[in-house]
Amino acid sequence: MRALTWQGPNSLQVDTVPDPVLLNPQDVIIKVTLSSVCGSDLHLLGGYVPTMHPGDILGHEFLGEVVEVGAHVKTVVKGDRVITVSIIGCGECEHCVRQDFSCCDNSNPNPCVTETAYGQPCGGIIGYSHAFGGYAGSHATYIRVPYADTNLFKVPDGVTDEQAVFVSDAAPTGYFAADNAGIQPGDTVAVWGCGAVGQMAIASAYLLGAERVIAIDRLADRLALAESKGGAITLDYETTNIHQALLELTGGRGPDRCIDCVGMEAHGTEIDYAYDKAKQLMRLHTERGTVLRQAIRACRKGGTVSVVGVYGGLMDKFPMGAVMNKALTLRSGQQPGQRYANQLFTHIQEGRLDPSWMLTHPMDLEDSAQGYALFKEKGDQCLRAVFRP
């Protein structure tokens, strides 16, 4: 089969690789129909996640058709149109029983790396380095999915492929970000980052009762989408003092809920960005924390900061004093999309959510390396490049 492979930092190529096979009776093989890029893939592409091997297949947000079914699989059959939640749960450990699927004890067959780094092993993630299981990704003709009964969801009638593909990752990540923020009716919510996850966080904040959402980015096309598609108030951080603007918009209090949809490669205009970038390039720490610092500083006293932007390791100058003295709640995590997939499909079917407009650049898999270059450089107003094998 054909697949997009990582060859080294900022080096991708499409290769012919062996087809996947069933390894466990709970596996399925899926013929990929659509497979989307994701902002978190850029951390892999740039070499910020050190457990990538040349030849690893990228991709974790996808939709396809079931073509082979393991003997113990009960919920899908050949021919079903399905999405796969990108963060893998086993369905049986204590975390999965609590619906904290992204904290699964059993889905990562290489637990030692994250156990050493974080204190306990983390769950597996499709196409996301050997630290998170070494699973082959979805930018390929076929993909093996483990624990199929937990991680596969049939796409209901009335939901298009272009809508469904984002229920694999971007939509549940944005919904989880808003849900984790504890939004109450009437709240003002600030969202940093207007990529696909940020756009879904904006939409989800309104679904959960927010009165106003303020979206922060520097790209004019993404800010325009946040306003026209999401109904957000928009701020360009390159031309605006974000902290002052947020105070002015909230009567001096700060937003009730702040959501970080950016993560470890945040861009900024102030001195902390230059400091972070220099230390990151020298591998003296791993995170550029501009957005997280801004969110903590801006959030109202007693408010909540929700973090779904990916962080991998260590950050200097973390404002713990602000967290403690303002009585902030800090919540974070990889998305437990199994908790939300059917609910999101219902929102789509009933017209409350339509993520299909985020698919700005449909492309052939053979052109996927160029698609990533376009996505990384944010050229041609690319919000999401999506590949058809």
General description of the model:
This protein has 389 residues and is α/β, with parallel strands linked by helices. It is built from 14 helices and 16 strands. Strands 3, 5, 6, 7, 8, 15 and 16 form a seven-stranded mixed β-sheet that branches. Strand 10, helix 8 (220-228) and strand 11 form a beta-alpha-beta unit. Helix 6 (170-180) packs across helix 7. It is globular and about 60 Å long. The mean pLDDT is 96. This is Glutathione-dependent formaldehyde dehydrogenase. It comes from Pseudomonas quercus. Its cofactor is Zn(2+).
Helices and strands in order, then pairings?
Blueprint: E1 2-8, E2 11-16, E3 28-36, H1 41-45, E4 56-57, E5 61-69, E6 81-84, H2 94-97, H3 112-118, E7 142-145, H4 148-151, E8 152-154, H5 161-164, H6 170-180, E9 188-192, H7 196-207, E10 212-217, H8 220-228, E11 233-236, H9 242-249, E12 257-260, H10 271-281, H11 290-298, E13 304-307, H12 320-325, E14 329-332, H13 341-349, E15 361-364, H14 368-377, E16 385-388
Parallel strand pairs: 9-10, 9-12, 10-11, 12-13, 13-14, 15-16
Antiparallel strand pairs: 1-2, 1-4, 3-5, 3-7, 3-16, 5-6, 6-8
Helix pairs in contact: 6-7
